[in-house]
């Protein structure tokens, strides 16, 4: 695998949120290497995107592949009446949504973005289209929500759809259980190799976690690798 320091790393590191640089690199390469451009007429969605730290690597990869359709960011934070996040100081900026959109436009000018201020299950229940890319990083990562999301998602995917679960193998149990259930024999999905050993070593050697505004990367020394990837069979 040909690893380089990505041109979008400064914007990624400056964007506050969850993802580590290792996870971002793993996601970027997984999309670049596994996305079937023949299913580009479907749309991409990040469930629990917050202001898009998890969206950046995927949207750049899709843009570089020539994707021109919608990338939806679904998170109740985009509907101010929904919820408040005491820890997310960046949501106090009244322009955070506009700023998010502007950043993504610069990184991926050919991709259309839309923010959806809804709970994932309400949006998925109402939405009538199909997805080519899905990230699940919503809520508290408990099984009841994940099962509801997958209930709708299974009806909205096509062979080749890429599905990623964050906090897979971290302190949360449900995302890893779901990843195994889907990816094991008969689950309808195949697990992707995200090349973590090589990526984590590269990130460490080049100190790429330095300055990353991630609530998971304590003191810039720990680079979590908790994105699990699957492709629909
Ligand atoms: C772990 S954070 C996501 C971090 C983000 N993906 C990143 O990389 O920075 C979880 C997010 O899920 C959102 N959320 C909570 N319940 C949700 C639901 N039912 N549907 C969609 N998003 C939800 C929260 O507002 C929060 O922003």
Structure description:
With 233 residues, this protein is an alpha/beta fold. The chain has one domain (11-136, 191-232): 3-Layer(aba) Sandwich (Rossmann fold), CATH 3.40.50. It has 8 helices and 7 strands; from the N terminus they run H-H-E-H-E-H-E-H-E-H-E-H-E-H-E. It has helices spanning 9-14, 21-34, 55-65, 96-107, 120-126, 143-153, 174-183, 196-205; strands at 43-47, 70-74, 112-116, 131-136, 157-166, 189-191, 227-232. The protein has a 7-stranded mixed β-sheet, with helices on both faces. The longest helix has 14 residues, at 21-34. The radius of gyration is 16 Å and the shape is globular. The two termini are 24 Å apart. The model has no long low-confidence stretch (mean pLDDT 94). The protein binds S-adenosylmethionine. The site of S-adenosylmethionine (SAM) has 18 residues, from loops.
Question: Which keywords apply here?
Answer:
233 residues; Rossmann fold; seven-stranded mixed sheet; binds S-adenosylmethionine
Order of helices and strands: HHEHEHEHEHEHEHE
The pLDDT mean sits at 94
Q: Helical element count? A: 8
What is the helix content? 25-40%
Low-confidence stretches: none
The radius of gyration computed from the alpha-carbon positions, rounded to a whole number of angstroms, is 16 Å
Structural class: alpha/beta
Please summarize the sheet with the most strands.
7 strands, mixed
Number of strands: 7
Shape: globular
Main-sheet strand order equals 3-2-1-4-5-7-6
CATH architecture: 3-Layer(aba) Sandwich
Ligands in the model, by name, code or SMILES, are: S-adenosylmethionine
Number of domains as seen in the coordinates: 1
Straight-line N-to-C gap: 24 Å
Query: How much of the sequence is in beta strands?
Result: 15-25%
CATH topology: Rossmann fold
Instruction: Return the CATH class.
Output: Alpha Beta
């Amino acid at each position: 695998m040909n690893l380089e320091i990505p041109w979008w790393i400064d914007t990624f590191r400056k964007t506050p949120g969850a993802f580590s640089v290792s996870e971002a690199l793993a996601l970027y390469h997984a999309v670049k290497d596994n996305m079937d451009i023949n299913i580009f007429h479907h749309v991409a969605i990040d469930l629990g995107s917050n202001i898009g730290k998890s969206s950046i690597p995927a949207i750049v990869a899709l843009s570089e592949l020539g994707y021109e359709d919608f990338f939806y960011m679904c998170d109740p934070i985009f509907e101010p009446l929904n919820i408040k996040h005491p820890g997310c100081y960046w949501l106090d900026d009244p322009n955070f949504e506009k700023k998010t959109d502007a950043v993504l436009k610069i990184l991926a000018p050919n991709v259309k973005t839309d923010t959806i201020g809804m709970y994932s299950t309400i949006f998925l229940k109402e939405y009538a289209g199909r997805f080519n890319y899905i990230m699940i990083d919503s809520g508290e990562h408990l099984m009841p929500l994940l099962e509801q999301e997958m209930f709708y998602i299974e009806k909205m995917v096509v062979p080749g759809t890429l599905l990623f679960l964050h906090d897979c193998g971290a302190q949360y149990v449900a995302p890893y259980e779901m990843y195994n259930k889907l990816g094991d024999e008969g689950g309808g999905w195949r697990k992707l190799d995200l090349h973590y050993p090589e990526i984590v070593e590269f990130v460490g050697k080049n100190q790429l976690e330095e300055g990353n505004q991630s609530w998971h990367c304590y003191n810039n020394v720990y680079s979590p690798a908790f994105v699990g990837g699957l492709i629909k069979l």
